[in-house]
Amino acid sequence: MQFKDTNILLGITGGIAAYKTPDLVRKLVAQGANVRVVLTESAKEFVSPLSLQAVSGNTVSDSLLDKDAEAAMGHIELARWADKLLIAPATANFLAKLTYGLADDLLSTLCLATAAPIYVAPAMNQQMWLAKATQSNIKLLQGRDIQFLGPAQGEQACGDVGPGRMLEPEEIVQLILPAVSQVLADKHIIITAGPTREDIDPVRYITNHSSGKMGYALAKAAQVLGANVTLISGPVNLTAPTQVHTINVSSAEDMHKAVMQQMGDCDIFIGCAAVADYRPQQKTSQKIKKSEQELTLTFVKNPDILSDVAHLTKPPFTVGFAAETQNLREYALGKLTRKKLNMIAANDVSNTNIGFNSEQNAVTVFWPEGEKQLNIADKSLLAAQLMQLVAERYTKNTD
Ligand code: PMT
Question: What is the distance between the alpha carbons of residues 48 and 134, in angstroms, rounded to a whole number?
Fold first, then answer.
């Protein structure tokens, strides 16, 4: 019941994702929130006011000039009532209105009239999201402390694939929970992601199956919570989340150097990259030619980035990952202690449905005094849940 006694005003604008909002309301209510809903005219084409009234237990508002509504809870009163204003889905049109401070309907007027923090969960066609006008509106709105929740990447109602899907109701709820929403704001979070590439000669290297999806999802989850995120990424085929400072590296040694250079004001470090433990002792300057029946390569140990961060004189709150194929608990707990970590998220990578290069993951998170299981879920949701846990443990650690 993390929203006990919290008044959440949910603004719904006219996008197909509006059909998910009754579920969103139910999930907010289940966390103890008092929810009031405001619909724009076009939202009513996608979701029925009656359903929203039934799930929220409150009258739904939709008009600025409604005499009866103004006589009951008028727009200024509603704006003052809200502890949080959440707009989901937020269309490109609504983001533009918000940017220019228009007040031509109830919801846009409430945005100007409230002192509550505003969260937006955008939903639109990927080309509309990527349009220069929308992107420049987003930059302006973020500069005004409006928190963006998503959007997610993926297949869209129109058949396109790309950024612009509204986050799932569960993800939205996770991201605005009080434990998360304030604690991480303005914190510098450094996240490593992806594989490293260890060169053998100018044309060959050794690497692993990490796609970077887990680390990029964490970067996005941290960024939407207002953290100042630096993503240090090995070679992947992913687009970095907007507003995240991304540094691309190749080898474990490059990644180690980049992490250490950024450490100055780091509050939280999350090592999600699958860093090669060893590299070839020598990278030959010329391509190795085929000759003998056997070829022997000697490997030397790479620096352990995570351990080096945790052993700094003033270490940040340090979170590791453990990719294990057996003895998950024992090996993860060993790494937690040996590397002096605050937390470790262990995934069973013998299960090919999760972990390396899959859309989903499941982890058991261990810290010195406890543990928590995060069940199988899309990496974006799992990342949101993990960031919530990081925020909780970080708060306890700095108390
Ligand atoms: O990228 P995806 O396809 O989405 O897959 C996600 C993932 C499976 C890669 C991710 O969830 C994960 O488990 N990442 C850690 C992989 C790993 O290298 O685990 P490890 O148990 O070998 O290493 C333990 C920890 O030490 C990790 O935090 C790792 O980043 C760190 N490490 C390891 C070696 C090294 N030289 N330096 C390090 O910092």
Answer: 28
Question: What is the span of the domain harbouring residue 280?
Answer: 188-398
Residues 387 and 284 in one domain: yes
pTM of the model: 0.76
Same domain for 25 and 146, yes or no, is: yes
Same domain, 260 and 202: yes
**What local confidence, expressed as pLDDT, does residue 375 receive?**
85
Residue 397 Cα to ligand 1 middle (Å): 24
Domain boundary among 125, 144, 176: 176
Q: pLDDT confidence of 18, banded at 50, 70, 90?
A: very high
pLDDT tens per residue, range 308-318: 999 999 999 99
Nearest CA to ligand 1 atom 35: 304
- State the pLDDT at residue 181: 67
- Quick check: 186 pLDDT over 90? no
Domain boundary among 113, 148, 176: 176
State the CATH number of the domain containing residue 255: 3.40.50.10300
Instruction: Tell whether the model's pLDDT for residue 185 goes beyond 70.
Output: yes
Quote the CA–CA distance of 398 and 394 in Å, as a whole number: 6
CB contact at 8 A, 339 and 275: no
Determine the pLDDT at residue 8.
Answer: 98
Exposed e or buried b per residue across 111-128, where buried means at least 16 C-beta atoms within 10 angstroms of its C-beta? bebbebbbbbbbbbbbeb
| 172 and 207 co-located in one domain | no
Structure token pair of residue 51 = 């359903």
Residue 179: is its pLDDT beyond 70?
Answer: no
From the CA of 187, how far away is ligand 1's center (Å)?
Answer: 23
Q: What are the two backbone dihedrals, phi and then psi, of residue 158, each rounded to the nearest 5 degrees?
A: -80, -5
pLDDT band at 397 (very low <50, low <70, confident <90, very high): confident
Of the residues 306, 330, 363, which should be mutated to test ligand 1's pocket, given the most ligand atoms within 8 Å of the CB? 306
Question: 347 CA to middle of ligand 1, Å?
Answer: 10
Residues 98 and 246 in one domain: no
Q: Is 266 a catalytic residue?
A: no
The CATH code of the domain that includes 41 is 3.40.50.1950
- My answer on whether 118 and 246 are in the same domain is no
User: Over 70: is that where the pLDDT of 27 sits?
Assistant: yes
Q: Are 325 and 348 in contact (CB under 8 A)?
A: yes
